[in-house]
Design goal:
The protein is α+β, with helices and mostly antiparallel strands. The chain has 11 helices and 11 strands.
């Protein structure tokens, strides 16, 4: 890229961010949660069609990323560099990011199944911990692979990593959590981890819903093996099985 093209690229990105509605959309995504175009339209106080146009422009300039999950379409910041740029502009402009809280039923938010893997606050925390520890390695556009230490971790849990890698389905990938609006672990590896959690009675599966209850021993095991501090998430909706409130599945 020559200097003229570089200058043009900078000016295009700056102009895209400078539009007030787009600024509000981008700032609302800085917490790492994904939003729908409807939510972002409400935040930016624009019509749905105008929001779609703004999001298309932001996507074209690689400022946001689109996730399509079933019939739902979610947007998030393209990467941490976008968030860093916004933070720098806020310091210069002495402005603060608007806040937005996504709503989800508390009783299903902590832990539940998502197809054949685990979802909810607990699953998102496990996913984030695996990335932070370097057990999962992000392969841009291709999901995740395991590091040597990650492979040792899963094999230590009794998971045949090589057999999973030979399956026709994706080995490991981020799956956007509808309540947390952040990824949890999907793919063959995510499914195997859920089976281990159920077999070892880390979690207890409801007979008539997708809700999962975390057992006391499960909390201790996850803290010891994965470094996930699940006690931080115990709340009125319940986490430890003996204190888990009744769950109702959304249908």
């Amino acid at each position: 890229m020559n200097a003229e093209q570089h200058d043009l690229g900078v000016s295009q990105v700056a102009a895209a961010i400078a539009e007030p509605a787009r600024t509000r959309m981008l700032c609302a995504l800085m917490d790492g949660h994904a939003r729908t175009s409807t939510e972002l339209a409400s935040i930016a106080d624009v019509s749905a069609s105008t929001a779609s146009s703004h999001l298309a422009k932001l996507k074209e300039l690689a400022l946001v990323r689109l996730y399509v999950q079933g019939r739902h379409r979610y947007y998030s910041l393209a990467d941490k560099r976008v968030a860093q740029a916004l933070e720098a502009l806020m310091v210069i402009g002495q402005n603060a990011a608007p806040t937005f809280t996504a709503r989800a039923p508390d009783r299903l938010q902590f832990a539940r199944t998502c197809y054949d893997h685990m979802a909810g606050t607990l699953a998102v925390r496990m996913h984030d911990r695996m990335l932070e520890a370097g057990w999962l390695v992000d392969v841009e556009g291709k999901g995740y692979r395991l590091s040597d230490s990650g492979e040792a971790l899963f094999q230590g849990l009794g998971i045949d990593v090589q057999a999973l890698a030979g399956q026709r389905r994706r080995f490991a990938c981020p799956c956007l959590d509808w309540s947390m609006r952040r990824p949890h672990l999907g793919g063959a590896l995510g499914a195997a981890l859920l089976q281990v959690a159920i077999k070892r009675k880390w979690v207890i599966q409801d007979l008539d819903s997708r809700a999962l209850g975390l057992t006391a021993s499960g909390g201790k095991e996850m803290a010891a093996r994965l470094g996930v501090d699940v006690e931080m998430d115990v709340g009125p909706a319940g986490a430890i099985a003996s204190r888990l409130a009744p769950t109702v599945e959304l249908r």
